[in-house]
Amino acid sequence: MADWLAALDRRAELRAKAGLTRRLHPRPAGEAVTDLAGNDYLGLATHPEVTAAAARALSAYGLGATGSRLVRGSTDAHHALEDALAGWLGTDRALVFSSGYLANLGALRALVQPRTLLVSDAHNHASLIDGCRISGAETVVTAHADVTAVAAALAVAPGRPAVVVTESVFSVDGDLAPLAELHAVARRYGALLLVDDAHALGVTGPSGAGAVAAAGLAGQPDVVVTATLSKALGGAGGLVAGPAEFVRHLVETGRTFIFDTALPPAVAAGVHTAVGLARAGDGLRAELAARAAFAVRRLRDANLTVPTPDAAVISVTAPGPEAATAWAADCRDRGVAVGCFRPPSTPDTRSRLRLTLNAGVPRADFERALEIIVECAP
Asked: Are 154 and 142 in contact (CB under 8 A)?
């Protein structure tokens, strides 16, 4: 009976030897660290207007949605948020899920019909990878950001329904997919384009509408956009946006929508307020761009390997998983929280520190945090 537990222990030992142990680190409210690990890019998670809107909805609706969206979980707050998101992204409709992960699973499953081919970027997020797997469709994984490889994959499947699947700003290295070129190739072969805009929404594009809008693809009938509400908008939940017919299809058939308890109304209300602040946040986006440029210069001056970021994610190469873990721990001990990415969370064999910029962090604290990262480097 205990054999399966012993097997789990053995797997844990092997992960430990490879430097891949993962632990939870609970943080107290008001923790005195400089946060370069979270995804609150615009500093809206604690914005007083956002928290006040959430508090009002909490008082009005209670703690949870009390049911799935099709039972009792749809509130005025959910529908107002969906209308605001669709207007911002320039799509017919938007649908809110309880997480970005479930939004990706649901969107991919809903896009698949018999004989569908999915063409997925090698650096895609785990939620997109799992969505492709769960869909049951044949999936071809193409080299990262390789438009020629995508075209080749589509060319050998003439007449089949197909979907090109990509992030916009990739979550590990912070680079931007060639969205306009991918869309042109997809359209040439009659394929759809699914873009996870999680790390671009609120950070790039006109009025922060994301990389899809920046590429001139907003509202295109062959483009579906997904994103999380937990990054630049400072809340929780996910969204799928696109043609009205597709959103209707999700409402009527999407298992991760139909059978999941709805996002709490208080979160929906807070995120709705955050959308308005993000749309008006050109100054915050300019500050993020300035900080990204400053960080790259400082880190490169210290002979660290840092690719040029396209948004607010900065990847810093570490010598290996153990070194990355020790580096992140040393930074935390000195009051700086950074992301630590190691295989299998990375799309290759490299380990990294991932710095995510937050316009709400005081500039002096941000610059001091960079000095600590440099001083702690292995």
From this structure: no
Give the pLDDT confidence of 145-170 residue by residue, as tens digits: 999 999 999 999 999 999 999 999 99
Number of Cβ within a 10 Å radius of residue 49: 13
Distance of alpha carbon 257 from alpha carbon 269, whole angstroms: 19
DSSP state of 128: H
Q: In the structure, what pLDDT confidence band is assigned to residue 1 with cuts at 50, 70 and 90? A: low
Tell me which residue of 315, 321, 335 sits closest to 376, measured CA to CA: 335
CA distance 213 to 265: 28
Average pLDDT, the chain: 96
Residues 53 and 276 sit within 8 Å (Cβ to Cβ): no
DSSP string, 96-112: EES-HHHHHHHHHHHH-
- In terms of Cα–Cα distance, which of 273, 235, 265 is closest to 69? 265
CA 359 – CA 327 distance, rounded (Å):
24
205 φψ region: left (φ > 0), alpha (ψ -120 to 50), beta (else): left
Q: How many residues does the chain have?
A: 378
DSSP string, 306-347: -PPPSSSEEEEEESSHHHHHHHHHHHHHTTEEEEEE-TTSSS
The 8-class DSSP code of residue 71 comes to I
65/85 Cα distance (integer angstroms): 20
Backbone angles phi, psi at 85, to 5 degrees: -65, -45
The alpha-helical segments, DSSP class H, found in the chain are: 3-17, 48-61, 76-89, 100-111, 126-135, 147-155, 179-188, 211-214, 244-253, 255-258, 265-279, 282-301, 321-333, 363-376
Q: Phi/psi at 268 (nearest 5 deg)?
A: -60, -45
Are the CB atoms for 98 and 237 separated by under 8 Å? yes
Query: Which tokens go with 323?
Result: 């070194």
Q: What is the pLDDT of residues 3-44, one digit of tens each?
A: 999 999 999 999 888 888 888 888 888 788 999 999 999 999
Q: CA nearest 285: which of 226, 346, 201?
A: 201
Q: Which amino acid is at 185?
A: V
